[in-house]
Amino acid sequence: MAEIVVYGDPVLEKVAEPVTVFDEELARFVADMHQTMIKAHGVGLAAPQVGVSKQVCIIDLSVGENPDDLFVLINPEILEVDGSQKGEEGCLSFPDIITVVERPNSVKVRAQNIAGTTVELEAEGFLARAFLHEIDHLNGVLFTERVSNLKRNMIKKKVSKRVKAGTWNS
C-alpha cells in the first residue's frame, strides 16, 4: 500500500504528467491506490497524493463496499459544468481538516479507463464534487484554493500549529 503525502509536499501543487502506457503496472498501481484510499476511509484519491505525478485518480463513494462504484479517471478533461453546490470537503492530504467549498453541481468528464479506452461520464451532487476535487489534484490545485482567503489562512494556521507540534503527518 502507498503512503499518502500531506500538504507541504511539492508534488501536490504540480500539474501531473499524462499517462501514455496502459499495462499491468498501471492496473496494479490503480489497485494499490484503491486499497490505500479504502484504508484511509476516503472517497477519492489522486496519484499525486501518493507521490506519483501522473494523471490518474479514483473515486469510490462506497469506500470499497461496491466494486461497481469505482471510477478510474486517467488523463481526465472537464467538458462541462453546471449549477452550484456548497458542501463540506476534506482531503486525505489535509488530515482532519474539513471546510465548506462551493463547486458546480454537475460535471461532464472525458477520460480514459484502465484499458486506455476513452469514456465520457456525467456526475451530479456529491459524485460531481468528488470528480472535481480529484481532477483538481491532477492539475496541482488544492481544495484550499477554492475557499476564501480568510478560510485559507485559517487552514494554513492549523497546519502550521500541527507542524510545530509534530502532529501534521500523523
Automatic annotation (TrEMBL):
Binding residues for Fe cation: C91, H133, H137
Keywords, ordered alphabetically: Hydrolase, Iron, Metal-binding, Protein biosynthesis
Pfam family, one: Pep_deformylase
GO annotation (BP), single: translation
Keyword Metal-binding: yes
Highest taxon listed in the record's lineage: Bacteria
Catalytic residues in the record: E134
InterPro entries, per database record: Peptide_deformylase (IPR023635), Peptide_deformylase_sf (IPR036821)
Assigned EC number: 3.5.1.88
A GO molecular-function annotation: metal ion binding
Cofactor(s) recorded in Swiss-Prot or TrEMBL: Fe(2+)
Reactions performed catalytically: N-terminal N-formyl-L-methionyl-[peptide] + H2O = N-terminal L-methionyl-[peptide] + formate
The record's free-text note on cofactor binding: Binds 1 Fe(2+) ion.
EC category name: hydrolase
Function: Removes the formyl group from the N-terminal Met of newly synthesized proteins. Requires at least a dipeptide for an efficient rate of reaction. N-terminal L-methionine is a prerequisite for activity but the enzyme has broad specificity at other positions.
UniProt family annotation: Belongs to the polypeptide deformylase family.
Descriptive protein name: Peptide deformylase
Organism: Acanthopleuribacter pedis
